[in-house]
Design goal:
Length: about 260
């Protein structure tokens, strides 16, 4: 089986470090590059995600390292970042932003990039994911606090009622739901599966998050296709709205405590 030309082109760029234009002008590879390319092509044909083979992924304004320690950041999650930036608008040294289930650190780091003065905290239950997030902080030169633990249980208690923005792309697949082999065989299952229903973590974020954000604070979460109604019900204590991803699906829950979220 051969790869689609655009995937082969990306892997060629990855092994040579050259641009597409440079490879068109001079397509010759060295023996070492050809050997490395053959290895990556074989792995890709066997089903490994392209981004893990390339080792890097673009997310909003950043280019981040990515490997099997964390979920590959998706375009839907860039929409969460965009909604968060537009909602919060501005942040000073007293602003607190928390990313629950930070994975590669993509949301936390892109928010620190947008709001350099804010205190940004990334939480994850996976030590492996956090080790990658730390490497991405070094790579991007962005200063985020990383905490290993279970959602709000990881946070310092003095932040209760003081958080300005919580973002999360929690696991939201129901145990037993079918996923493509490329996803389920390679990405961490702790990043994908939430429990028997799929909305278990979202429900905890809605319930506990209400007490952790301040009045006027935001909670912005990615949700699964078909979870909009359940998500709106869970966030009943907030002013809230479900917004669409680039494909027009209801995938982003925007909620605000004690103030309108829909300005
Ligand atoms: C869907 S991934 C999202 C990763 C990253 N934010 C992104 O959008 O690419 C969910 C993340 O939540 C983490 N996670 C799962 N259960 C958790 C829990 N109870 N507390 C904290 N993090 C958790 C997983 O390790 C994983 O990194």
């Amino acid at each position: 089986m051969s790869l689609p030309p655009h995937e082969l082109d990306r892997l060629r760029r990855s092994v040579t470090g050259r641009t597409h234009a440079a490879l068109v002008a001079d397509p010759e590879l060295t023996d070492d590059e050809r050997r490395d390319l053959d290895i990556l092509v074989a792995r890709r044909v066997a089903g490994e995600p392209l981004q893990y083979l390339e080792g890097f992924v673009d997310f909003g304004p950043l280019t981040l390292k990515i490997d099997r320690r964390a979920l590959i950041p998706r375009p839907e999650t860039e929409r969460v970042w965009e909604e968060a930036v537009v909602s919060l608008r501005r942040a000073g040294p007293g602003t607190v932003i928390v990313d629950l289930g930070t994975g590669s650190g993509c949301l936390a780091l892109a928010l620190k990039h947008a709001f350099p003065e804010a205190r940004v905290i990334g939480v994850d239950i996976s030590a492996a994911a956090l080790s990658l997030a730390r490497e991405n902080a070094v790579l991007t030169g962005l200063d985020v606090e990383w905490i290993e633990g279970d959602l709000f249980g990881a946070l310092p208690s003095d932040l209760e009622g003081r958080i300005d923005l919580i973002v999360s792309n929690p696991p939201y697949v129901a145990a037993g739901d079918e996923l493509p082999a490329e996803v389920v065989d390679h990405e961490p299952s702790v990043a994908l599966f939430a429990g028997p229903v799929g909305t278990e973590l979202l429900a905890r974020i809605a319930e506990e998050g209400y007490w952790w954000v301040g009045v006027g604070g935001w909670v912005i979460c990615e949700i699964g296709d078909g979870q909009a109604e359940a998500a709106e019900a869970m966030f009943g204590g907030f002013d809230r709205e479900v917004r669409k991803d680039l494909a027009g699906r209801d995938r982003i829950l925007v909620a605000r405590k004690g103030a309108s979220c829909c300005v």
